[in-house]
Amino acid sequence: MIDLLSILSIVLIISSLCVFGIRNYKIATYVYAFQTFILVMIFLFLYITYDAEQLGGWAIIAFFTKVIFVPFILLRLIKKLKVEHEDEPLLGFFISPVVAIAFSLAIAMAIYPIYLKFSLIQEHIPLIASITIFMIGIFGFILRNSAIKQILAYCTFENGIHLSLALMAYNSPEIAELGILTDAIFAVLIMAILSQRFFKYFGSLDVSKADELKG
């Protein structure tokens, strides 16, 4: 019978794909907030199950920074730029999510045995989920041209890293500090400012237009 940790991990994969594929910026941002809330629930589950005090503190910090502040910054950016929907991405709206999830799962299935070998928690589905989420973030950078969707891809990518660290080394004394240091809030702030200036100059969030800066 599938356990709670595996169910939460599957929800993380589905929500990551939704963040990647949803065209509406506001809805994609709300789904990202939900995804990160599920990640916080996983931290708390591991904290209770494995008596990992570091993950308890990390869960509280992640809730305020990644569930509240990062979505707030993105929603404010969307409101300020008065943009609603993403422009047509590379490979189209239908094909790009299919390519992203197919290749992400394939890569995760190929390399998770290595993660399993070194992980403190010997759970197959959560480890596969951590790699899949990480790879969906990578494909977000490659296949989506919108600056806002690329910020969301970065946030998804970071959630995959956090889940990997929590599963593989939850009892490390440095894990909470690392979680704070790798937090997305300052990176998202900087990327939001750059996106605003990019939109002001090009009148679009399509980062492929940056090629016009050559020369």
UniProtKB/TrEMBL annotation:
UniProt entry tagged with the keyword Kinase: no
Gene this chain is encoded by: hyfE
PANTHER family in alphabetical order: HYDROGENASE-4 COMPONENT E
Lineage of the organism: Bacteria, Pseudomonadati, Campylobacterota, Epsilonproteobacteria, Campylobacterales
Compartments where found: Cell membrane
Gene3D superfamilies: 1.10.287.3510
KW Transmembrane (keyword) present: yes
Organism from which the protein derives: Malaciobacter molluscorum LMG 25693
Membrane spanning residue stretches: 6-22, 29-50, 56-78, 90-112, 124-144, 151-169, 175-194
Pfam families recorded: Oxidored_q2
This protein's GO CC annotations: plasma membrane
Membrane topology note: Multi-pass membrane protein
Designated name of the protein: Hydantoin racemase
Chief location bin: membrane
Keywords assigned by UniProt, alphabetized: Cell membrane, Membrane, Transmembrane, Transmembrane helix
Signal peptide coordinates: none
